[in-house]
Amino acid sequence: MIIKTYFSHAGMVFRRGAGLKKFMNEHTDGYRMHILKKYIGDRAFYKMLFLLVLPLVVQQGVTNFVSLVDNLMVGSLGTGQMSSVAIVNQLVFVFNLAIFGGVSGASIFGAQFAGVGDDDGLRQTFRFKWIFGAAAACLAIAVFYWFGDRLVLLFLENESNAEADIGTLLGYAQSYLRIILLGLVPFMIVQVYSSTLREMGDTVVPMIASVAAIVVNIVFNYLLIFGKFGFPQMGVAGAAAATALSRYVELAVVMLHTHRHAAKFRFIRGAYKSLYIPSVLVKKIALTGTPLMLNEVLWSLAMTFINRAYSTRGLEAVAAMNITTTAWNLFCVIMFAMGTAVSIVVGRELGRGDKARAIDLDRKILAFTVAIHILIGALVILTSRLIPEMYNTEPEVKALAARLLIVAGASLPMHSLVHCIYFTIRSGGKTLITFLFDSVYTWVIPAVLAFCLCTYTALPLHLIYFIVQFSEIVKMGIGLVMLRSGFWANTVIREESHEPIQSGCEL
Questions:
Q1: Which of 50, 185, 440, 462 has its CA 20 to 30 A from that of 254?
Q2: Where does 157-276 have alpha helices with state H?
Q3: DSSP label at 440?
Q4: Which of 356, 482, 504 is nearest to 420 (CA)?
Q5: Is 6 domain-assigned?
Q6: Measured between alpha carbons, how far is 52 from 57 in angstroms, rounded to an integer?
Q7: Residues 148-176 pLDDT 10s
């Protein structure tokens, strides 16, 4: 009876002149508008996103551009010097992400405190970051001071490097490492201040500080690496000295601005009067932040392990990977900024208790991120042969780097989506899930693939790199399923706000 009635009604519609074509167009247009509204924001949304992301992009972009300039300057000294510096930077990268992870755990709470205007809560998360950062910096300096040589040798001692070269390469690495350690403490303090400012929606001050540091870095790189205008010619040690000096400049700008504008940044008032943090908050941050910190450390160790596997293919592989990674970081500035934007925007909405809006804004940010990185990925592929030509290195290194860059560009849209999914889940305090999603997955799949393929096969490095990069497809699928469930949309700063979100939130 129901079927008969439906067809009778449909027949009446068509007989009245609507026609099949009009009927289908109306339904198609309605579905299209639904999709557009779901994934594409209005002008106010993109204005908000632009104002938030632009300073982050400028900061990251300039920073990574300087890294490229650093590489070019050091690379002009030779492949050995460039590779040694790349190895040290890979090791320091673990410390950087450990700081980032510890700070980010507290930032989940900081963003939500900022969302409700709780200055005292923001002040306490600031203190937590300081205490954690100081402990991590002391530990890192001790490890690098006592075990730095052994860690560097893990990358150098392989059959592809001649015994005579190892001592020379280790000497370059030692010169760079001993000086770069001086920049670890100011780097930590900058992260403590800058992350808190970003939680309050101020991304401009960290950008200005970063740009000032970058100018200093470039100038002193030129003066100290090559010995210009009466300065000593220090080579790789000069590059380290310039980087360390730039860290102190960045620190001075961030701290001075924050303390001079205490009326705006009210969390800084009384921040140093005591180290008091409510035990309840410490427990919450520890429970939420520990998986996050472990994730960043273990993920960075996994990446170091993967690069160690690549390094078994010789010094040319180390140099080519260094070129690829440097260029990759430059092209990924928008992806990194979008991850931060997700943390801030979604975190604030969750802090206000507006879960539906948090889900909606997150969906639109992710859609925009993927769309723009399809274009950026195409740009990476188009410039893949041009970038290695800027380096003073062997033709074999340039050719390998070009092939690696093509793979990197093709995988960029996928990685941008995974990156933002990670920050989405993290913004709701689901750090144990992000730990499993990120570092555990990286150790189980990409790291194992890299080790096995480099050790037990004769596959060329660019093909191994392709397999490892695109193994993230599985991770992307898992992330989309988790995102669609909506379980992550959780408010962490109020006990009463932990009610479960309704199921069926669509991605």
A1: 50
A2: 163-180, 184-199, 204-226, 236-260
A3: I
A4: 482
A5: no
A6: 9
A7: 888 888 877 664 555 447 788 888 889 99
> The tokens of 146 are what?
């006592």
Q: How many other CB atoms are there within 10 angstroms of residue 55's CB atom?
A: 20
Residue 33 placed within a domain: no
Q: For 332-351, what is each residue's pLDDT tens digit?
A: 888 988 888 888 888 778 87
148: left (phi > 0), else alpha (psi -120 to 50), else beta? alpha
Residue 398 phi, psi dihedral angles, 5° rounding? -60, -45
Q: What is the CA radius of gyration of the chain?
A: 25
Question: What's the burial of 477, exposed, middle or buried (CB within 10 Å: 0-12/13-18/19+)?
Answer: exposed
| CA separation for the pair 253, 255 (Å, rounded) | 6
Taking a C-beta distance cutoff of 8 angstroms, is the pair 454, 312 a contact? yes
Instruction: Report the number of distinct structural domains present in the chain.
Output: 1
| Distance from C-alpha of 197 to C-alpha of 202, rounded to nearest angstrom | 5
The CA distance from 432 to 435, in Å, is: 5
Does the residue 377 lie in any domain? yes
- Residue 387 phi/psi, 5-degree rounding, is -60, -50
Domain hosting residue 489, numbered range: 42-497
Neighbour tally for 288: CB within 10 Å? 21
In a domain, 275, yes or no: yes
Of 64, 54, 361, nearest to 203 (Cα)? Answer: 54
CA distances from 320 to 52, 83, 461 (A): 34, 9, 10
Residue 499: exposure state from Cβ atoms within 10 A (0-12, 13-18, ≥19): exposed
Instruction: Say if residues 450 and 465 touch (Cβ distance below 8 Å).
Output: no
CA distance 317 to 406: 16
- The pLDDT of residue 392 is 78
